[in-house]
Amino acid sequence: MFAMTTLAVLIALGMALARAFIGPTVFDRILAVNSVGTKTVLLIAVLGFLTGRPDFLDIAIVYALINFIGVAAILKYVKYGDFAHPGEIETDPPGNIAGTATGDGEDER
Amino acid sequence: MIFTLIDIALLTFMGATAFAILRLRSLFAVVMLSGIYSLLAASMFVALDAVDVAFTEAAVGAGISTVLMIAVLALTGEREKTPAHTPLLPLLVVILTGAALVYGTFDMPAFGDANAPVHLHVAPRYLHDSFAEVGLPNVVTSVLASYRGYDTLGEVTVIFTAGVAVMLLLGGRKGDDAGIKQQPVDEDGDDRRADSKDLDGSGGAA
Description:
Number of helices of chain A: 4
CATH class of the domain at 1-82 in chain B: Mainly Alpha
Structural class of chain A: mainly alpha
Number of strands of chain B: 0
Largest sheet of chain A: none
Oligomer: heterodimer
Strand content of chain A: under 5%
């Protein structure tokens, strides 16, 4: 049964890889990386049970954390083009605050 | 049987990923694919029972170096220039080197061979005497921290230096002329508004 699960995980890994190769947009590739990471976690877990030593499940959990952090960083880069961007601190309500910001900018210059 | 199949599938995936990395010109996709390659290599290491190596490979290869490469992409462009020279000579060199390496593996003992020299010469002494000599219950820790302690110290120095260099390269600049990608400020209404919004954002962060 674990062998069949391994086969299924490998096939899913191959399909995610194919999407990473041919994926036309950036988001296809990010999603492919994310799902390859997930398949890696699954593969490690299944391999542990396949060899009869499921001691490495915590390693799989750490892989999941690495995967999440990496994808979050990549998405931040794709959205802002910069890692040091402050993010969504002040989304633009187009009124008073924007006017104040423009005044500040004039003072700086 | 299933383990052979897993090995074959993972190696095929790694080869296909490496080939795709060679063929693609979009550097963002190349960074994504190298992260995938690291994850596949980590799976391969787990299949070879080297879980600690796999863990390092996933943390360094798929985790931090993907992020660092993305940071490099934020400073440079996203397209690779088509190389002017033909890749035939480098291909020949790589094929010859790879053939020599494969030829060299023929002299190596088989994978997991208990009679390999590495299992006969020093490893038994570490296993038997390290607790009496060093006093640590973990043999790997006593090898790393005591038997080859100077080597580990050198490694830590190298890693520290590399970290300092990367931080200097990526985050060392402050001030007005900081950004290579800083956009030119036009006297256009829209651009000025975007610029002032950016100033406001950095002021809010500080």
